TrEMBL record:
Alphabetically ordered keywords of this record: DNA-binding, Endonuclease, Hydrolase, Nuclease, Restriction system
Signal peptide annotation: none
Name listed for the protein in its UniProt record: Restriction endonuclease subunit S
Gene Ontology biological process terms, A to Z: DNA restriction-modification system
Protein family according to the UniProt entry: Belongs to the type-I restriction system S methylase family.
Species the sequence originates in: Aliarcobacter butzleri
GO molecular function: DNA binding; endonuclease activity; hydrolase activity
Domain Type I restriction modification DNA specificity positions: 17-158, 183-347
Keyword Ribosomal protein: no
E.C. numbers: 3.1.21.-
Amino acid sequence: MKIDISTWKSFFICGKKGIFKLIQPGVRKSKEYIEEGAVPFVASGAFNNGIEKYVKTDEVLDQGNCITVSAIGGFSFYQEKDFVGRGGAGSAIKILYNENLNEQNALFICAILKKTLSKYDFNSMISGTILKEESIYLPVNKNGIDWNFMETYIKNLEPTVSKYLNQLQSLKLDSYKKLDLKNWKRFNLYDEQLFTIDSGNKLDKSKMATNNPTVNFVGRANQNNGITAVVNEIIGLEPYKKGYLTLALGGEYLGSCFIQPKDFYTSQNVNVLIPNNEISYNTKLFISIMIFKESRTYYKAFVDELNRHIKTDFSILLPVNNNEQIDWEYMENYIKAIKENTLDKLELLNNIQ
């Protein structure tokens, strides 16, 4: 449903002339050290409403009926219930309050906030100052912001969204057989069968020219293959070749590993995995998933990151054949099977009315 925004007006997000009251949580215990419970722990994540886990805590809670904004990527979510917000420096969340807020109009505004703030990343995280300077366009009536329009718009969408969600669930898209790893072996990424690990360019995106963009710029991100910009090629600095893998060593998106589709540069804290031999795209995809799973299972952002492990003791599980060598054929065929299964499901989705 296309919206006519020609009559909308611009509003500062917060500050003296802003829509919202801004709250920035104080320093809190790390989520790793809080006992599990029933209180949402909200951090700078892109999924699950920003909730990383549920905790038991005696700390003062942040009040619900608000919008939380991730400092990285601008991911914005409505929080209905009281919660523990990740505070302190760096990627702490920002909390926005307005007495007119409810679940429906908040969802409408969250989509606009995400669109506006998605340009901010690890090199330029969202601060309170930035939120006071940024503005968003919203529908208006004779009294100001048209809260009722936003609420009604979302309510009208809900039946359609519910219908499609039910149809998706009926397809059982995630019903893949669980892998048996008991006969797999561990390999370091620097194994001669795998990769040469390069430390990357360590460039600062904010200092890159973009008037003649020809080279992808890969940062610590978990979307769009980690590509956060397209920049000018630097004279004397040859880009890395397409087909290499990039790996985020730390931060909120630790372990994000992607096959790069075009030549590229990298930001700080992003390593490049250069295949020592010819490795198929499907096999690289399989390996990138195993790297991500290993990173998120055994390492922690801002606590124990990959920097000091990647060239020493970091390893991943891979399938092996009867000769105890990496089973390249198994990985190739496994990804092919998933792709074929997914294409079948997409064909079914195209037939949904």
